[in-house]
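This entry is retained here.
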Amino acid sequence: MNEPSIAHALRWGGHIYGVSGIEAKGSPAPATGNLLRLRRCPTLAESSRQNMLHEIQLIPFGYHVTSKGDFLLDEEALKLVVSTFDSQVNDLVVDYEHQTLSGKEAPAAGWIKKLMDRGRQGLWGLVDWTERATGYLRSKEYRYLSPVFLKRQSDSRVVRLVNAGLTNAPEIDGMEALAVNKSNFGMSVQTSGLLAASLSESKVFLDETQRRINELMGCSEEVWRKYGG
C-alpha cells in the first residue's frame, strides 16, 4: 500500500492552485501501533475559544470537473479525510492564494481546528481567522476558499486535506462564499448557536464545582446564595 505523494503542481500567473495538483497513489497508509497520534483534547479555555471559530465549507460534496482535474467527495471520502485529520496533532493552515506551496514566506490567514462531515453539504471545518483575514472577509476583499488535497488516482476520491487558501477565483464552482457576521461579534451564523450551548454547559460545570467547594468549606447553599453567589 503506497503513501500519498505530491505528483505535480499546476501554476497559473505565478500562483499555485492545488485542486488537482496534488494526487495520491493508492490509499493512505493506515496509522497503527505507536504511529497513531490522536489530536489531544482541548483545555477548558480552548473549548471556550472554539465557540468563537467560524464554520466554513472546505470541499463540496459530489463529483466535480475542473480545469485542474476531476475529483470525487462522497461518503467514503468524507470519512477518510476526517479520520486522517483526527489522527494528526497540528492544525492545518489557511493561507493567501496558496502561498504555502510556493516555498516562500506565507503568512497564515487562519487555522483549521476541526473537520466535520456534513454529508451532502460536503466537508466543513472550524477555522480560527487572524485579525488581518477577518478584516478582508468583513470588507469582502476575499470571498472564497480553495482547498488543497490528496486524491486517489484510481478513482479520483479525495483522501486527505492538506491546507486551503483564500482566493477570489476558486477553481471549484459552487463553493459557499465566506462571510464574517458583524452582528454576532465576528462569529459566523452557523456557530453563533454553539456559544449559547457552551455557556449553558459551562454554567452547569461551574455550579457543580462551586457546590463541591462549598461542601469542603462547610458552607451551606443558602449562605452561598445569600453572600457569595
DSSP finds five helices and ten strands in the chain. Confidence is low (pLDDT under 50) at residues 1-37, 47-51, 183-199.
